[in-house]
Write a structure and sequence with these properties.
With 155 residues, the chain is mostly helical. The protein has one domain: Up-down Bundle (Four Helix Bundle (Hemerythrin (Met), subunit A)). The protein contains six helices and no strands. Helix 2 runs antiparallel to helix 3 and helix 3 packs antiparallel against helix 4. The protein is elongated. The two termini are 28 Å apart. One fe (ii) ion binds next to helix 2 and helix 4. Keywords: Iron, Metal-binding. Belongs to the hemerythrin family. This is Hemerythrin family protein. InterPro entries: Hemerythrin, Hemerythrin-like, Hemerythrin-like_sf, Hemerythrin_metal-bd.
């Protein structure tokens, strides 16, 4: 996988969520790069920890936002998040048990998540929010709740 670059095509039109996606891409690029290179598994283990912490944070923010706009596909979206969260956890466990993780497995997952989930599923949240904004403008739709603490600034 070459580096994934954030481009406007990945924008879902909601600034806070876009910013979190940019951060996720940065974490994934670092991980995909190191898993190819000679880094030892301790580095990869730490990067998976960062990925997992940021994933939990981001999904939770996204799910809270969906509640505020009464997004009709929130349950299906949450199930998809649960599947992605479980994959990250499974990777961590096999890395812990075997000290190794196949590069291609991780790269396929990162592609699936970053490209397919963001482009197909997250994009629909943005479209729905915009359709609500044009029919009945509400300030709460414009801002995403920020009750969680960004794990990348705490550690
Ligand atoms: Fe999502
Ligand atoms: Fe997302």
């Amino acid at each position: 996988m070459g580096r994934i670059e954030w481009t406007p095509a990945l924008s879902i039109g909601l600034e806070n969520i876009d910013e979190e996606h940019k951060k996720l891409i940065a974490i994934c690029n670092k991980l995909a790069h190191n898993i190819k290179g000679p880094s030892n598994s301790q580095v990869i283990t730490e990067e998976f920890k960062d990925l997992r912490a940021y994933t939990v944070y981001h999904f939770s923010n996204e799910e809270k936002y969906q509640k505020t706009i009464h997004y009709p596909e929130a349950n299906a979206h949450a199930q998809e998040h649960a599947r992605l969260r479980k994959s990250v956890k499974d990777f961590q466990q096999s890395l812990y048990k075997e000290g190794y993780i196949p590069q291609q497995t991780v790269i396929n997952f990162l592609k699936d998540w970053l490209i397919n989930h963001v482009l197909r599923e997250d994009m629909k949240i943005g479209q729905f929010a915009r359709s609500k904004m044009t029919t009945g403008t509400s300030q709460e739709l414009r801002s995403q709740p920020k009750e969680n603490v960004d794990p990348s600034i705490v550690s």
